[in-house]
Amino acid sequence: MPADIHPVCFSAPERFETMGQPLLLVGCGNMGFSLLQGWLAAGAAAPEDVYVVEPSEMLRDRACQLGVAACSTVDELAPGLQPRLIVLAVKPQSIAEIAPAYARFAGTAAYVSIAAGVITTSLEKMLGDIAILRAMPNTPTSLGKGSTVVFANSRTDGGTRERVVALLRAGGSVHFVDREELIDAATAISGSGPAYVFLFIECLARRAATLGLGEKLALDLARETVAGAAALAMSDSSQHPAHLREKVTSPNGTTAAALEILLADDALDHLLGHAVDAARRRSASLSGEV
Ligand SMILES: NC(=O)C1=CN([C@@H]2O[C@H](COP(=O)(O)OP(=O)(O)OC[C@H]3O[C@@H](n4cnc5c(N)ncnc54)[C@H](O)[C@@H]3O)[C@@H](O)[C@H]2O)C=CC1
Ligand SMILES: O=C(O)[C@@H]1CCC=N1
Fold it and tell me: Which of 26, 34, 80, 248 has its CA 20 to 30 A from that of 108?
């Protein structure tokens, strides 16, 4: 873990502080819905406290099936609604158009944006000089197995940080960074990371099928192998992944034959390095497009 990323020591509270406090989720697409699933499953928010704004009828229906209220535009929200937290889960390219309509809640609300690459200075121009946090979650949040990296602007007080952590903690671990550019790094590692792992599963399954294992068994084995290895890697933090790898690798055995290819000229390391750099640079460049 980079020295700048400090995990928040936050054991799950018995009673989440977000309970009874209206929470507004703006955008309920892939990531917004993953967050919503995580919050509700962990009891971090009660369905009756959550209001979703989402223009897609299909996605509103999906949200409503979890018991929350959903409408298609900000203007349809009850005039008296005073949200305590507003989570902006819309695309970076559309946030400048969408966010300003939510500035009217600034008297009661703190804002969390999950938009990749959209810096707090830009968000402050859209919403005002108020408490704004950037969070970079990932889709395993829907199962409470996600990682979220958070940066808070200077207007964010301790109570607001705690409230946001209480909510995000429902989706898995929460880590604060104190330099905003580290959100770009986190985006490239944990935000986009699940896609790299899914690609690995796809590739492994394709190879398994090529070896004659059959489509279903091929996919089952690829999924189970990644899930099992990840569970092992998580089960004992004193064991470095390299040590776990060595335990699989018999001298002059089959794993050694495969690793000789993957480790040759640091091929995999370099490929992943290029990929992660591209994601980090893309995150940084998105800020110039907003
Ligand atoms: N998909 C992922 O794994 C992650 C995504 N993010 C960030 O989350 C944000 C959303 O990404 P996705 O969920 O993947 O995209 P998405 O396209 O699935 O979701 C965006 C949603 O915003 C809705 N929307 C459009 N206009 C709206 C408006 N005026 N008011 C309310 N909602 C509106 C869309 O209908 C759509 O459902 C992006 O900024 C992305 O950078 C961050 C971490 C991970
Ligand atoms: O691909 C993207 O831009 C978003 C941010 C991290 C994951 N998905």
Answer: 34
Nearest alpha carbon, ligand 2 atom 7 = 192
Of the listed ligands, the closest to the CA of 57 is 1
Answer yes or no: is the C-beta of 116 below 6 A from any ligand 2 atom.
yes
113-154 residue pLDDT tens = 999 999 999 999 999 999 999 999 999 999 999 999 999 999
CATH 3.40.50.720 fits 15-180, yes or no: yes
Residue 16's closest CA among 176, 164, 156, 137?
164
pLDDT at 52 over 80: yes
- Looking at the CA of 95, which ligand is closest? 1
- Ligand 1 centroid to Cα of residue 30, in Å, is 6
Dihedral sign computed on CA atoms, order 274, 276, 279, 283: negative
CATH 1.10.760.10 fits 193-289, yes or no: no
ipTM of the modeled complex: 0.99
- Residue spans of the domains in the chain: they are 15-180, 193-289
